[in-house]
């Protein structure tokens, strides 16, 4: 079981974007912390979340389920032709995490960015 | 607290029921008095301890972490076990309410009660009584566990019905499968069934996230929805056609996956449960395979000439986002070709250092010569076991393979 830290940052693009920088392992022992942190921020008014995955070493299915749960919390009405969530996006997944995202086809649900500024401007 | 009051409390305890007045008085004289606010831990499991406690007032909780073993109130004792056998504390005791405790040291207890066989007798009786209580509790819990185990066994048997009992026999095709759950119930599934019209064979392999009962429940849901939507879709075709058209087959495949995805993503959204699914429809006459790969490990086609191709994902996992789209892709199988599909129990099998078996070791099977599909699957298993060494199987292992026979 891994350990994980979350650093919260606020950015202003076209809209306010909350950046959650995750450090460590996103697995069955830590996903709840991410989900709870996101729920707290959403309660306080956060509408757009960028998950900075650059420092995530491992992500298991619990991590993907947490991202889905957060996407649900941020849920807005589906627009015609919209096939990716507009309110939660991923930044810079690396190594094994990037491989699993590709294997599970999560890149077909979520926008994945490599550049922080571009990611923030995309919301 | 006065000596008489302490004596009165000690007298009321079953622990010292047989002790004469002078013994009680002597013990009271040797004892201390503690006032502990509610919520404080008095003894901690695993610690050494030489003090036992009589509850004069208040309430305490005997526990092991979150598991509560007992509640104790006025007239009851704790900490006596470590005092009697000099071992470490066997459980933690925390006050529930503000409590008054009379404390007694091991030396004082032994020194005093050793003068009184009657006092010793009641101490022994009270320890045995507690022991009997524990035996009773353990027996009750064991019975409960056995009942759960039986339920799980029923679940396992019912779940086995959600896997094909036998695979269809198709002219010019050989089908081999393997399924091994890591626990009693599994999240993996596979399915092979003929479609009602035309020479089409549906092949499905999937893996529900997570493990245990939750995954097993969703496995039955995914498997049933895929089979039902697919067969219903084929049946809905106009009855006067002898064969299903390839276009219709592809449409059925796509609809089936989309309906399954949107049903679970909508109805069971709160569970955030998903499955990776490879779903192919094979034209057994021509060898053309149309497929959707929803976030599943890429099946490998080992060509008769020694080359291999992988069938990459065409969409994400099923069950999360109702609006998700899945593309159809196709591949041509020729006589002598062999398609091997599997779940991540194969490529992510771990050895004791935590290294994974990986796809590369699956690709290496291209150089293995074999006569029938089961021999191929057995060899993969042999290699997984050899790689894994003494590390335990951590995930379900499922494999489904088809060979286009050369005739």
Describe the structure.
The complex is a heterodimer of chains A (about 120) and B (about 400). In chain A, about 35% of the residues lie in helices and about 30% in strands. By secondary structure, chain A is an alpha/beta fold. In chain A, strand 4 (about 90), helix 3 and strand 5 (about 110-115) form a beta-alpha-beta unit. In chain A, helix 1 (about 30-45) runs parallel beside helix 2. Chain A is globular, with a radius of gyration of 13 Å. By secondary structure, chain B is an alpha+beta fold. The model of chain B is unreliable at about 240 (pLDDT under 50).
Any descriptors?
heterodimer; A: 123 residues; alpha/beta; five-stranded mixed beta sheet; 5 strands; 33% helix; B: 407 residues; alpha+beta; five-stranded antiparallel beta sheet; 18 strands
Could you give the topology of this structure?
The complex is a heterodimer of chains A (123) and B (407).
Chain A: E1 4-12, E2 16-26, H1 31-43, E3 49-59, H2 61-73, E4 88-91, H3 95-103, E5 112-113, H4 116-121
Parallel strand pairs in A: 2-3, 3-4, 4-5
Antiparallel strand pairs in A: 1-2
Helix pairs in contact in A: 1-2
Chain B: H1 3-12, H2 21-30, E1 32-36, E2 41-43, E3 51-57, E4 59-64, E5 67-73, E6 77-78, H3 80-85, E7 92-95, E8 99-105, H4 106-113, H5 117-160, E9 173-180, E10 188-194, E11 200-208, H6 212-235, H7 246-267, E12 275-283, E13 288-294, E14 300-302, E15 308-310, E16 329-332, E17 338-342, H8 344-347, H9 358-363, H10 373-388, E18 397-404
Antiparallel strand pairs in B: 1-8, 2-7, 3-6, 3-8, 4-5, 4-7, 9-18, 10-11, 11-12, 12-13, 13-16, 14-15, 14-17, 17-18
Helix pairs in contact in B: 1-2, 2-4, 6-7
């Amino acid at each position: 079981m891994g350990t994980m830290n979350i650093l919260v940052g606020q950015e202003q693009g076209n809209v306010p974007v909350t950046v959650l920088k995750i450090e460590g392992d996103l697995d069955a022992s830590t996903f709840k912390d991410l989900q709870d942190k996101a729920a707290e921020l959403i309660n306080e008014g956060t509408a757009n979340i960028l998950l900075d995955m650059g420092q995530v070493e491992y992500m298991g299915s619990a991590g993907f389920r947490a991202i889905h749960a957060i996407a649900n919390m941020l849920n807005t009405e589906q627009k015609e032709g919209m096939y990716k969530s507009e309110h939660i996006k991923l930044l810079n997944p690396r190594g094994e995490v990037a491989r699993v995202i590709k294997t599970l086809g999560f890149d077909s649900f979520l926008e994945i960015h490599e550049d922080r500024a571009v990611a923030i401007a995309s919301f | 607290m006065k000596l008489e009051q302490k004596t009165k409390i000690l007298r009321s305890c079953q622990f010292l029921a047989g002790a004469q007045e002078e013994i009680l008085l002597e013990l009271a004289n040797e004892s201390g008095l503690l006032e502990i606010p509610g919520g404080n831990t008095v003894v901690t499991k695993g610690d050494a301890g030489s003090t036992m406690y009589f509850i004069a007032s208040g309430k305490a909780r005997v526990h092991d972490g979150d598991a509560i073993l007992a509640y104790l109130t006025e007239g009851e004792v704790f900490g006596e076990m470590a005092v009697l056998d000099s071992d470490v504390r066997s459980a933690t005791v925390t006050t529930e309410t503000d409590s008054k405790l009379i404390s007694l040291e091991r030396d004082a207890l032994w020194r005093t009660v050793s003068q009184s066989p009657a006092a010793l007798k009641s101490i022994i009786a009270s320890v045995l009584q507690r022991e009997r209580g524990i035996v009773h509790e353990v027996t009750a819990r064991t019975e409960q566990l056995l009942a759960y185990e039986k339920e799980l066994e029923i679940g396992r048997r019912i779940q086995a019905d959600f896997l094909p009992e036998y695979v269809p026999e198709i002219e010019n095709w050989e089908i081999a499968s393997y399924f091994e759950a890591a626990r009693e119930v599994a999240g993996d599934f596979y399915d092979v069934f003929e479609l009602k019209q035309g020479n089409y064979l549906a092949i499905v392999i999937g893996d529900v996230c997570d493990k245990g009962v939750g995954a097993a429940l969703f496995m039955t849901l995914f498997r049933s929805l895929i089979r039902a939507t697919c067969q219903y879709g084929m049946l809905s075709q106009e009855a006067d056609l002898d064969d299903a058209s390839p276009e219709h087959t592809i449409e059925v495949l796509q609809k089936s996956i989309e309906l399954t995805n949107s049903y679970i993503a909508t109805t069971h959204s709160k569970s955030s449960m998903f499955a990776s699914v490879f779903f192919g429809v094979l034209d057994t006459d021509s060898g053309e395979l149309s497929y959707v790969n929803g976030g599943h490990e890429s099946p490998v086609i080992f060509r008769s000439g020694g080359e291999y191709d992988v069938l990459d994902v065409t969409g994400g996992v099923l069950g999360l986002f109702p609006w998700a789209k899945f593309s159809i892709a196709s591949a041509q199988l020729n006589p002598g070709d062999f398609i091997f599909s599997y779940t991540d129990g194969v490529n992510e099998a771990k050895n004791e250092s935590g290294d994974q078996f990986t796809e590369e070791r699956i690709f290496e099977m291209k150089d293995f010569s074999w006569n029938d599909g089961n021999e191929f699957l057995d060899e993969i298993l042999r290699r997984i076991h050899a790689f894994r060494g003494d590390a335990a199987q951590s995930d379900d292992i499922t494999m489904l393979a088809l060979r286009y026979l050369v005739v």
